[in-house]
UniProtKB/TrEMBL annotation:
Its main location: nucleus. The lineage of its organism: Eukaryota, Fungi, Dikarya, Basidiomycota, Pucciniomycotina. This is Uncharacterized protein. GO terms for biological process: mRNA processing. Residues 250-268, 297-312 have a biased composition (Polar residues).
């Protein structure tokens, strides 16, 4: 593979070759002539002269070559070396310039790469900021939303105050209802006790009448059967005559006893004690207590626990009062269902019953753990 040089380098190479090879070529030609001279007898004289001439020319060429070599060894060699040094210096400067240009290019490319990296990083940041900005609305919409939230907060605070007042009033009403229910329970118990006493007295009177009627019949030897006042009259053991027993009164007592064992309907609009069933139509609105009424009316009604005609009548226009953790209708229905099963209006659990229930529950838990 040949190396291509520039024009000054080629001229320098050619000059060096021409000065170093031409005298040597001439000397070699003269030497070849000297060796090629014929050696015959007839041409001996001519050959001797020619040989001497060729030998002299050979020596001249040899001296000239030596002289040329000496000259070139001094000045020409210095010039050639200087020219070569200049060419090498030029080439070195060119290489340095080229290296400097390459370094500049590399630095420029590095700066471009760094700028591209910064642009990419800034673009990513700008995109994130743009997403964050686009996620929110402008100032006017934000102000409208803030104003709307402020109005909503004010309305919620107003509602909070309203419901706080309503809750306080409902607590007062609930306390009044509890007091009225307790008074109603006491009145119902008293009425039930009165009904039981009346029933027991009527049973005793009827038993005494039957015994008194049987004794005269046995003494006279005849028997009387049937109705009428004669069959139901008799003498008491103290000698007094027993008044006749009215069947309607006895039936009324039985109805009264039966009514005492009946339970209240939890779905009814009002609750009446058993003694006031016959007077239900005669009750006036003033004798009724409404659940949603004012606390003053409830307190006035609570001050009259002995009135048998007092009622709890909810308003049909409003929804029933709802109290957290207490359902009046559900509790009434449970208590009334228990009274239906036991034949009582309201059954109150005593402390002993509660202790027995707790002991039973503890026994069940111990059995379950065992």
């Amino acid at each position: 593979m040949s190396v291509v040089h520039d024009e000054p380098t080629m001229e320098l190479i050619k000059t060096r070759l021409s000065h170093s090879e031409r005298p040597l070529i001439r000397l070699m030609r003269t030497f070849y002539k000297l060796t090629m001279i014929p050696t015959g007898l007839e041409d001996q004289e001519r050959t001797a002269e020619e040989l001497e001439i060729v030998h002299m020319s050979f020596l001249l060429e040899l001296r000239q070559l030596v002289k040329t070599l000496k000259e070139f060894k001094g000045t020409r060699a210095v010039e050639l070396n200087r020219s070569e040094s200049i060419q090498l210096e030029i080439e070195r400067s060119k290489l340095e310039d080229q290296a400097f240009q390459e370094k500049l290019k590399i630095q420029n490319l590095e700066s471009l790469l760094e700028q591209a990296r910064r642009d990419r990083k800034n673009k990513i940041q700008y995109e994130e900021i743009g997403k964050e900005v686009r996620r929110f609305s402008d100032r006017f919409q934000s102000a409208d939303r803030i104003n709307g939230l402020a109005r909503e907060i004010e309305s919620l605070l107003d509602e909070q105050g309203f419901y706080a007042e309503r809750w306080a009033s409902r607590r007062v009403q609930f306390d009044a209802v509890i007091l009225n229910m307790e008074a109603l329970q006491e009145s119902i118990k008293e009425e039930k006790a009165d009904a039981d006493r009346k029933k027991a007295l009527n049973d005793d009177e009827s038993d005494d009448g039957n015994i008194a009627a049987e004794e005269p019949a046995e003494g006279s030897g005849g028997t009387k059967v049937g109705g009428g006042e004669e069959g139901q009259t008799g003498d008491r053991p103290d000698g007094e005559t027993q008044p006749p027993i009215d069947p309607s009164a006895q039936g009324g007592s039985q109805l009264q006893a039966k009514g005492s064992t009946t339970s209240l309907n939890p779905q009814a609009a009002s609750f009446l004690p058993p003694s006031s069933e016959g007077q239900r139509t005669a009750d006036t609105p003033e004798d009724r207590m409404k659940i949603d009424g004012e606390p003053e009316n409830l307190s006035q009604t609570a001050s009259q626990p002995a009135r048998a005609s007092s009622e709890l009548t909810p308003k049909p226009d409003h929804q029933p009062m709802e109290i957290d953790g207490f359902d009046l209708q559900t509790n009434l229905s449970h208590s009334l269902e228990g009274s239906n099963e036991d034949g009582l209006l309201i059954e109150e659990a005593t402390m002993e019953d509660g202790e027995e229930i707790e002991e039973a529950e503890e026994g069940q838990e111990i059995e379950a753990q065992a």
